[in-house]
User: What shape does this take?
Amino acid sequence: MNYGSIRYIIGCILKVEALLMLLPMAAAVIYRERSGLAFVVCALLCLGVGTLLSLKKPKKTTYYAKEGYISVALGWIVMSIMGCLPFVFSGEIPSFVDAVFEIISGFTTTGASILPDVEAMSRCMLLWRSFSHWVGGMGVLVFILAILPLAGGEHNLQLMKAESPGPSVSKLVPKLRATAITLYKIYLGMTIIMLILLIIGRMPVFDALCITFGTAGTGGFGVLNSSMGSYSPYLQVVTTVFMMLFGVNFSFYFLILYRKAKDAFSMEEVRWYFAIYFSAVFLMTASLTVQGGGILHNFHHAAFQAASVMTTTGYSTTDFNLWPSFSKAILLTLMFIGACAGSTGGGIKVSRVIIYMKSVKKEMAALIHPRSVKVTKLEGKVVDDTMLRSVFAFLSAYLVIFVVSLLVVSLDGFDLETNFSAVAATFNNIGPGLGAVGPVSNFSAYSVLSKLVLSLDMLIGRLEIFPILLLFAPSTWKK
Assistant: This one.
């Protein structure tokens, strides 16, 4: 185990986190909020600890998958602990467990909250919550790789693999740092375009900034208790479109950027992603129209909510707890499917769902024709045994963790719909669930134990399970 590199990377993460706190500090100065002093204290603390950890560069710069996973897992935990301190120091979220839950929900782009009244918070704290979505959306390690020449060279690919959502990660351009820079250029460009469109629609600049951060990171923290319900249809449509765009594999935009549009539009995962979305919207619109209301009105809310849930953003324009059971079942299904690999969205990922379905089809064909030789393909390439083993190991671990979490959370005595959707919403990084944790409710009623379990689920879900699990494996720490 290359402890020196792990220490150095965590130190870099803390220094970058101190830098990121300048934005809520600026908001505190603009709006003259004394709670902004908490960010000054926390930034100095992050900077001091980070400097101590990264003062001495590691002698051994080579590290592999194990070090990459451990660095990412520990980095996100440390970042979350330090990131929650402004809430605690300012007294706006006095409970440390609640503060940890809130900031983990932010960094993991979940959007689940323990706050009963969001509008009572100071603006600098609201901005920090939403900005944490933007930081966590693409990944803090990807951000660091883009701005800092970390020790490790091409071995830094292990960091990107451990942090980026989806079954596989590869370099888009020959050099890894150039890949990270390219990803952030695309990410920043889309963020700016959305911000401009929201301001054109007369959304207040502060609201537009927070909503854009939440949409880009597919997080979903709002600045109003009604989430997106109080904004105009135009603003809701813009948000719907960009939620879907940020749920697309960023390789698609890379190919468009480098004038390979034919390759981009031939991406199998992207086609499935939009096919699933529009099918869900059509079915929910039909279900809602049978219950009552105009078809265009129902289509508008179905399109928004399907995009919000499938991309794991978590905004809402209406209380979908009141929708027909069929529509709620579709939303619950979309929670598990999630967005594309290589996007800022969560969930199991569309690419894995495609592989699972094709694997079932292959096994059925083998039963009928035992001597036939069939291969599973994705994006025109054969899915090798290593990839198949990885995606099925992911599913096995996913189911075990989900069941264990559900059992623990059920100790609090809520109904099955609430508990099941609470675990689904946090594990898949969605945000609101159903029942007592629906879009007009929050997670504050859960016990300390349940909040800790759900916080761990958010981290496990965002980091694709294995980086966190490796922390608890005794073999990880053996020489």
About this structure: The chain has a mean pLDDT of 88. Residues 383-476 form one domain. Residues 164 and 411 are 33 Å apart (CA to CA). The first helix runs from residue 3 to 20.
